[in-house]
Design a protein that fits this description.
- It is built from 3 helices and 11 strands; from the N terminus they run βββαβαββββαβββ.
- The chain has 182 residues and is of the alpha+beta class.
- The mean pLDDT is 92.
Amino acid sequence: MAQLIAFNKPYGVLSQFTDRGSQTARRTLSDFIDRPGVYPAGRLDRDSEGLLLLCDDGRLQARIADPRFKLAKTYLVQVEGEPGEASLAALRGGVRLKDGMTRPAGAERIDPPDLWPRDPPIRVRKSVADSWIGVTLREGRNRQVRRMTAAVGHPTLRLVRWSVGEWSLEGLAPGEWRELDL
């Protein structure tokens, strides 16, 4: 039976178990998870937080991470400014990035979510408002959500992946993990 683990990756943690070649020590998954044989199904940038799934089955790992399977990934995104309908419509229709058009995404304004404080806190500029949007993707390019929000004029300040497919962060504090039923 395959193992599947949900991990709430804190800000500043690499989505890998080792950090070879770095001159300064950086936190990795091994600082939180002591389970041999499991590997991340996909990645989450060091400066992003939230749900990272790990498993010990290559087929399951591919089904979760490979864009061909179009598994929905939902992000809670704190952005600079207050996106209007035109910005949200642009995200929904697909955004032209340097590596081509993105697939259409789900995008909506949301109330500020009840999340843990980020360490370190985001930068705050008194002269620039911020707000939250929910973004759902069915592809996974490098730093895609950040590049998409910047392309529509609202740079990302904080990015939390809340769910992947049917699995979510519900009930997991940063640095905690739990086994999931398959």
